[in-house]
Write a structure and sequence with these properties.
Strand content: 15-25%
Shape: globular
Mean pLDDT: 94
Strand order of the largest sheet: 2-1-3-4-5
CATH superfamily: Dehydroquinase, class II
CATH class: Alpha Beta
Structural class: alpha/beta
Largest sheet: 5 strands, parallel
Low-confidence stretches: 151-155
Order of helices and strands: EHHEHEHEEH
Helix content: 25-40%
Number of helices: 5
CATH topology: Rossmann fold
Bound molecules: 1,3,4-trihydroxy-5-OXO-cyclohexanecarboxylic acid
Radius of gyration: 15 Å
Number of domains: 1
Length: about 160
């Protein structure tokens, strides 16, 4: 685990279009606005914030998080509901995983009720719009502190 807490915040497909994409569901904030929220919520911890439209790239970043991150906040977007390969990658992590969604998929179409992320997530935060990310980063930090002790020691 890194000495300073490093929270990876990884975003899946179409989240680059936040602000213009179905604003009635996802709101008017852009992904850049959400990154700022995450950095502000991080309380000095390092935030690595990325988005990709490509499943393989998302999996590469999950694998990278194995060595480089203290915790992972993941909004896998559409891949949440489809990607066994993503689940397999997540299973290799030993750090806390916080599944995060802007909307509440459980309250939407049936095909969004299945999540391949939830079985390996430490917890799930969804339905609060951009605040979901703020809560997810805070939850991730809390989990890291619990694991390492208040002074950031490794145990
Ligand atoms: C989403 C919910 C998913 O069902 C959807 O495919 C997304 C965004 C959310 O943040 O609410 O792209 O992950």
């Amino acid at each position: 685990m890194p000495q300073t807490s490093v929270i990876y915040v990884l975003n899946g497909p179409n989240l680059n279009l936040l602000g213009v994409r179905e604003p009635d569901i996802y709101g008017h904030e852009t992904l850049a606005d959400i990154e700022t929220l995450c950095v502000d919520a991080a309380d000095g911890a390092e935030i690595v914030f990325r988005q990709t439209n490509h499943e393989g790239e998302l999996i590469d970043w999950v694998q990278e998080a194995r060595d480089k991150a203290s915790a992972l906040v993941l909004n896998a977007a559409g891949y949440t509901h489809t990607s066994v390969a993503l689940l397999d990658a997540l299973k290799t992590l030993t750090i806390p995983i916080v599944e995060c969604h802007l909307s509440n998929p459980a309250a939407r179409e049936r095909f969004r009720h299945r999540s391949y992320v939830s079985p390996v997530a430490t917890g799930i935060i969804s339905g609060f719009g951009p605040i979901s990310y703020e809560l997810a980063v805070k939850a991730a930090l809390g989990l890291v502190q619990k694991r390492t002790g208040a002074q950031g020691r490794s145990v």
